[in-house]
Structure formats: C-alpha cells, structure tokens
Amino acid sequence: MTTSILLVRHGRTVLNAQDRLRGLADPPLDEVGLAQAAAVADALADRDVAAVHSSPLVRAVATAEVIAARFGLTAQADPRFNDRDYGPWTGHERAAVIAQFGSVGAAPGVEPTDTVLARVLPALDAVRRDGRGVVIVSHDAVIGPLVAALGSDIDVPIPTGSWSELVWHDGRWAVRSVGNMPQH
User: Fold this and answer.
1) Which domains does the chain possess?
2) Does this model's pTM top 0.85?
3) For residue 19, what are the contacts with CB-CB under 8 A and spacing of at least 6?
C-alpha cells in the first residue's frame, strides 16, 4: 500500500516576518499567514486526505484547521510534531544567533536535531498507518531535518505556507518534493 504524507509548514507569523526564532513561542498567524493557510488548503483540495495532524502550537493548529475544514475533517494536535525548542534564543533574530555561534544549532540550550528526529520519526510512522493521504502541519525546523533524514538531497527553502510530499511504498519512505508553493 502507498501512503502519501504532505508536510505543510504553517502560515506566517509576525516572528517569521522578522526572521526571529519561534520555537515554542506561540504567536498567532498574521494576515499573510491566514491567507497562506487558505491558499495551501485550496492547492491541496484535489488530494485524497484521510487525516490532518499538527503541532500543538497556535500557528500550526490554525493552519491545520483551515486545511481540515476543506476536507470535512477535524485536525488532531500531536506534541511530537512540535517545533524545535530554541531555549533562551527564542525570539532572537536568526542572523544574530548565527553570527554569534556559527549556526543556530550550535547555540547553547537549543534542542539538538537528533532529539527532534527522535520524536518526529515515530510519530510519522504512526500517522502513516492512517492510510491514504495524511497532512501534517509542522515547522521548518522539523520538516527540513525530516526530509534530510529520509534521504532527500533536495536542498530548497521551506517557506511558510508550503508543503513537501513523502510517499511510503514497499516498506520505505521516499521524498517526492520539497517546498511546494500554491500557484496564484
């Protein structure tokens, strides 16, 4: 059986617009983010979607609810799809953290990528059993490392309001696409 999972990055927030690390901060979608959620729901409307899951953060839940409503479903929040914890660097400008430490991951107190993957991979396996298509609304710090861990060498940005597609077939994952944007 083939299962398709669409990894959607939530719509934009004011912290995204300022390129500040969001992590476990919980800002709502801004006007652009609300429009992005509607646009991605429209773009995915022709897909066979059986379930919608999301991070429990407000920005992801709001995006998931718009998508779920399009399919007559109820979104289910799962803390395993939560954003990376940036610890004391939450709210700081990304560029400033990189300038100080060389990378965001090198800053003290930031959740390691391996820890993010250790919680996300089992959750991905669990939702794959829903069959048919599954939408997961999460964060770039989850989606990027996940597609890399599944063997993708596709190195493109994962903008807010975009989706990436994974396919489970013959007992393994394949990354079909990364960073897809709705056509306007």
Assistant:
1) 3-180 (3.40.50.1240)
2) yes
3) 93, 94, 95
